[in-house]
Amino acid sequence: MHTDNLQPWQHSHTFGQDRRRPGEFRTRVVIAITASMMVVEIAAGMLFGSMALLADGLHMASHAAALGINAFAYAYARRHAENESYSFGTGKVNALGGFSGAVLLVVFALAMGWESVARLVHPVHIVFDQAIFVAVLGLVVNGASVVILGVDDHHHGHDHGHEHTQHDDGHADHHHGGHAHGHDHNLRSAYLHVMADALTSVLAIVALLAAKFLGLVWMDPVMGIVGGLLVARWSLGLLRSTSSVLLDAQGPRQVEESIRRHVEDEDSRIADLHLWSIGPNVYAVAMTVVAHEPLTPDRYKQRLPDDLGLAHVTIEVHECAAEPSYAPA
Asked: I want to staple 251 with a disulfide (CB 3.0 to 4.6 A). Which of 65, 186, 266, 275 is the partner?
C-alpha cells in the first residue's frame, strides 16, 4: 500500500501548541517591568545604604529569572511543536515551566524565612523613608503586573477538529477537538511570582510603617516569615498540579465519567481506561471496550462528546465469549 493512501487516517500531533499563547506576550511585558524595578531597587539600596532595599532588589532579580524560564517554556513549546520526537507534542513543556517556577518559589519562600529569622535575632538598621517609598513603588509595579497577567480560570480556547486513525487490529486513534479550558500552568506560575512580589511589598509597607511610627522593629522579620509561609502554600499547590501532569496522572474525574457514560451501554463495557493530560486541558485517552456484540472502534468514537478536550483517542475492541448476564441492547 502506498503511504499516500494512509493520509485520511493520519493527523498532526501539535495539538495547537504551534500557536502563540496570549500568556507569552504578557509574560514578556512583566519581565521587562520586573527587570526595570529590580534595577531601581538595587540602585536605591546601594545609594541609600539600605540592605532591605538591596535584598528586595535581589529578590526581584530571582523572580525575573523565574519569569524568564516561563517565557522560554512558551517559546520552546511553540518552536518544537512539530518535532516528531515528542510523541504527543510539546504541551507538557507548559507544565514543566510551571513546575520549575514553583520550585523557585519554594526556594524563595525558604530564603525569606531564613533571612527573616536571622533579622529577628540580629536586627539591622533600616532607612525607613527611602525603604517605604520604594516598597510602595514596588507594590504599584507588582499590581500592574498582576493585572497584565490576570489569570482567568474560566478562559476558553476553541480548537475544533475531527481527525482519526483507524487500524485493522481494532484500534482507533481519534483527534477530537473541543472547548478546552485554558488551564495554563506556565502562566499560573508567572502569576504566582508577581503575586508573591505584591504580597511581600504589602507586608513590607505594613512592617516598615509599624517600625517607624510605633517602634515595632520586630514586625519587619515577622512579616517576612508570614509572607514566606503564604508563598510556600501557593508554590506547593502549583507543584501538585504540575507534577500530576508530568507524571501522567489519571485525568479529571468528570472527563472520565463522561467518557464512560457515553461509550457504555447495556452490552458494551469499558474494561480499561487511561486518560492523561498532554497539554493545558488537552487529553489523550486509551481504552479497551468489551461487548458480546461489539461495534467498530469508529462507532464508539462517535459517541464521545466534542467538549471534553480529547485530542488523541485510541480504542481497542474485544468480543466477550462468556454468556451475557443481561439482555443486550
From this structure: 275
Would you state the cell numbers that stand for residue 80, as one nine-digit string? 518544537
Question: Among residues 103, 158, 136, 268, which one has the least CA distance to residue 209?
Answer: 136
Counting every residue written for the chain, the total comes to 329
Q: Using CB atoms within 10 Å of the CB of residue 135, give its burial: 0 to 12 exposed, 13 to 18 middle, 19+ buried.
A: buried
CA distance 252 to 76: 27
Tens-place pLDDT, residues 114-153: 877 887 888 877 778 877 888 888 889 888 888 888 755 4
- Alpha-carbon distance of 6 to 289, in angstroms, equals 25
Q: Is CATH 3.90.550.10 what the domain over 9-158+183-246 is classified as, yes or no?
A: no
Cβ(311)–Cβ(283) under 8 Å?
yes
Q: Is the pLDDT of residue 167 over 70?
A: no
Q: Contact at 8 Å (CB) between 91 and 15? A: yes
Mapped onto helix, strand or coil, the DSSP state of residue 323 is coil
What crossing angle do the helices spanning 51-79 and 92-121 adopt, rounded to 10°? 170
SS (H, E, C) 183-252: CCHHHHHHHHHHHHHHHHHHHHHHHHHHHHHHCCCCHHHHHHHHHHHHHHHHHHHHHHHHHHHHCCCCCC
- Which residue has cell 502562566? 187
Task: Name which of 313, 316, 10 is nearest 169 in CA terms.
Answer: 316
Alpha-carbon distance values, 69 to 11, 98, 149, 186, 225 (Å): 31, 9, 15, 9, 26
- Whether residue 112 contacts residue 227, with contact meaning beta carbons closer than 8 Å, is answered with yes
Q: Is the pTM of this model over 0.70?
A: no
d(CA 189, CA 100): 9
Average pLDDT, the chain: 77
| Residues contacting 253, CB < 8 A, separation 6+ | none
Q: Is the dihedral of CA 148, 154, 160, 165 positive or negative?
A: positive
CA distances to 167, 218, 250, 253, 304 from 258, rounded to whole Å, are: 25, 55, 14, 9, 8
**Which residue bears the cell 443481561?**
326
Supply the pLDDT for residue 215. 85
Beta bridge partners of 248: none
